[in-house]
Each structure stands twice: as structure tokens, then as C-alpha cells.
Design goal:
single chain; 250 residues; alpha/beta; Rossmann fold; 7-stranded parallel sheet; 8 helices; binds NADPH dihydro-nicotinamide-adenine-dinucleotide phosphate; binds 2-hydroxyethylsulfonic acid
Length: 250
């Protein structure tokens, strides 16, 4: 039975992955959410929730993540797989009109969040010479698009960190995988547009975007390769999307 920790598990990819892993019957899960009510709602909705340990944490806050991780019960340790999924985009303004507060939130969540969790979980993997870290990047980490500026920069950083940790951990047998999806319909755009659902819906109008399940299946694929195989990177889009700018004519 492997133990998998998923950050941002109450929504989107993280939530779909939690369901998918429990369906297999092969995993114990540590799921995180930012507040108790979101965490409780998630845990209540999950099947086999005796195999689930919930943790409230904000990936931006290293000290609180440290405390929360120290309190994970023994039967949910060691953590075999860390899925650095929590992340977000805020707005699509050109840089000269950007909101500095939005920038801080994206940088602290998408970059420092990955650093914090990896710093906290990897030492035990290093000691055991075994483990798998899966970072959720984005096509925004491989290219840029109008208004994507800071979000794209954070996901480029996730790509760099995925490759850098792959090298750092090479001698310890730890696998590092970056999964980079294109447009997927989750809560992502609602968050990006500060709760404006009509504006968010427009992003996915007229074509079939990726679903959270599509991404969760791909994460599961990477997770279930034999120990001598490391999927370094997967870039995936829906069929209608070529890159961050080109989506099939509606
Ligand atoms: P969702 O908005 O549905 O889920 C994001 C999750 O991250 C939520 O659980 C959210 O919590 C959590 N989160 C955000 N900030 C923090 C924080 N500071 N601390 C802890 N948790 C936090 O979006 P997705 O499932 O789509 O996004 C998951 C990942 O995939 C992100 O890294 C995103 O950048 C990336 N991605 C998304 C794509 C898409 O088109 N949807 C495509 C490519 C990559 P809360 O509910 O409290 O906000
Ligand atoms: C989310 C996908 O295309 O909005 O990372 O950057 S995109």
C-alpha cells in the first residue's frame, strides 16, 4: 500500500486524483485543503475514507506546513509520493496593469509552495532512497500567452524546479515528474477571474477542454510505472488546443 500526499485536494485535479487513487484500492492518502470546512467536505465525499488523512495547510506558509506534516500519524508514513498540485492563476492583465498582490499570491503559491512541500517531504525520501515527486506544471510553463506573464513565469519555475530536483535526487533513486496540462475545466478560471463564473465559462466555450479526470488518469499513469521508469515530463492538451494561444476555431 503506497502513501500519497496531494496538495489542493479539495478541488479540480487534486480531488479527481484522490477519487481515482482510492478506486484502485492500492493507496493511503494524505489530502490537504486550506480550511477545515473544505477538508471535511472532501473527506466526507471520498469512498474508503478510513484510508484518508486530512491536513489543513496553506502551501505558502512553511512553518504551518512543517507543523501539519509533523502531525501526520505513523500509519500514513512514510510518504511515497508527493503530488505538488496546489496552485492558481490570478487575472490576465498585461504586466503594466498587473496587481502586485495577485503576483505575490501566485509566486508564493506556485513556486514557494512547491519548494516548501518538497523541502519538507524529500529528506525522508532521500534517507530511504525511494520516492516520487509529481509537480503539476502547465503548458504555461513551456510557452507564454498574452496576459499570462506572472502565471507563466511561475509555471516556468515549476518546470525548472522539476528538472533541478530530478538532478539533485538522481543519486537517491527519487523520481520527479512534471505533468503540464493545457486548458482544463475546473475551478481554475473561476479563481483566475475572482469568482466571475460567466467570464470563466467563456474560456471553455465551443470546444471540449480537458477534464480533471483526464489529468488525474495521466498522473496515475506516471505514478504506476515500474520503479526503474521515470516519466520526466508529460505535456497534454485537449485535442482542440495546440498551445496557449491556438484553440480550434469555435
Ligand atoms: P482548482 O482551482 O480546481 O484547484 C486548485 C487547488 O489548489 C484548490 O484545492 C485550492 O484550494 C488549492 N490552493 C490554491 N492556493 C493554495 C494555497 N496557498 N495553499 C494550499 N492550497 C491552495 O484548479 P486545478 O485543479 O485546475 O489546478 C490544480 C493545479 O493545476 C494548479 O497548480 C494549476 O496551476 C494547474 N493547472 C491547471 C490547469 C487548468 O486549466 N485547470 C492547466 C494546467 C495546470 P482552494 O479551493 O482553497 O482555493
Ligand atoms: C492553466 C492552463 O493555458 O490557462 O495552466 O495556462 S493555461
Amino acid at each position: 500500500m503506497k502513501r500519497v500526499m496531494i496538495t489542493g485536494a479539495n478541488s479540480g485535479f487534486g480531488r479527481a486524483l484522490a477519487f481515482k487513487l482510492l478506486e484502485t484500492g492500492n493507496y493511503f492518502l494524505i489530502v490537504t485543503a486550506r480550511d477545515t470546512s473544505k477538508l471535511q467536505a472532501l473527506i466526507t465525499s471520498l469512498p474508503q475514507n478510513t484510508r484518508v488523512h486530512g491536513v489543513v495547510l496553506d502551501v505558502r506558509d512553511f512553518e504551518s506546513c512543517k507543523k501539519a506534516i509533523e502531525q501526520i500519524p505513523e500509519n500514513f508514513r512514510p510518504i511515497d509520493v508527493l503530488v505538488n498540485n496546489a496552485g492558481l492563476a490570478l487575472e490576465t492583465r498585461p504586466l503594466h496593469e498587473g496587481d502586485i498582490n495577485d503576483w505575490d499570491i501566485m509566486i508564493d503559491t506556485n513556486i514557494k509552495g512547491v519548494l516548501h512541500l518538497t523541502r519538507l517531504i524529500a529528506p525522508d525520501m532521500v534517507a530511504r532512497r525511494e520516492g516520487h515527486i509529481i509537480n503539476i506544471g502547465s503548458i504555461a510553463g513551456h510557452e507564454v500567452y498574452a496576459g499570462g506573464n506572472v502565471y507563466c513565469a511561475t509555471k516556468h519555475a515549476v518546470k525548472a524546479l522539476s528538472q533541478a530536483t530530478r538532478v539533485d535526487f538522481l543519486d537517491y533513486g527519487i523520481r520527479v515528474t512534471e505533468i503540464s496540462p493545457g486548458a482544463a475545466e475546473t475551478n481554475f478560471s473561476i479563481t483566475r477571474f475572482h469568482g466571475d463564473k460567466a467570464r470563466a465559462d467563456k474560456v471553455y466555450e465551443g470546444y471540449a477542454p480537458l477534464t480533471a479526470e483526464d489529468v488525474a488518469e495521466t498522473i496515475l499513469f506516471a505514478m504506476t510505472r515500474p520503479p526503474h521508469v521515470c516519466i520526466n515530463e508529460i505535456i497534454m492538451t485537449c485535442t482542440a488546443q495546440f498551445n496557449g494561444r491556438i484553440v480550434r476555431e469555435k
